[in-house]
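Ops channel
N.P.: pipeline sanity check, posting one input/output pair.
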């Protein structure tokens, strides 16, 4: 009973405490999903990623897209390529990880990349 109560409270409050930061996913061949609290996610077709595996997306606390990467290139919230030349690889299952730089008020970020196993 306690477990059921915990999950009910978790689900009710999950949209109010930062979980909207993972509402947007971009992946695969120019596709993505928007999880906006509805039972079924909304498909997105405006992404620029064309990767078989790893990618990373960053949104703000309200769920607004900041940028996304496949570990090689970075696209901004308007889907324009901002940077290319990162050392990630499209065959790496986690080709990029985005971490805010401490003390920058979440305005600057590290992007850690991982090459393919055969590199």
């Amino acid at each position: 009973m306690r477990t059921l109560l915990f999950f009910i409270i978790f689900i009710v409050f999950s949209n109010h405490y930062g979980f909207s930061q993972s509402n947007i996913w971009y992946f695969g061949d120019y596709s993505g999903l928007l999880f906006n609290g509805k039972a079924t996610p909304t498909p997105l077709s405006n992404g620029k990623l064309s990767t078989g595996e790893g990618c990373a997306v960053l949104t703000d606390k309200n769920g607004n897209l900041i940028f996304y990467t496949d570990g090689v290139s970075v696209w901004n919230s308007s889907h324009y390529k901002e940077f290319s030349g990162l050392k990630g690889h499209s065959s790496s299952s986690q080709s990029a990880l985005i971490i805010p730089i401490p003390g920058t008020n979440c305005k600057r970020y590290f992007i850690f990349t991982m090459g393919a196993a055969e590199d």
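N.P.: looks fine end to end. The chain is about 10% helix and 30% strand.
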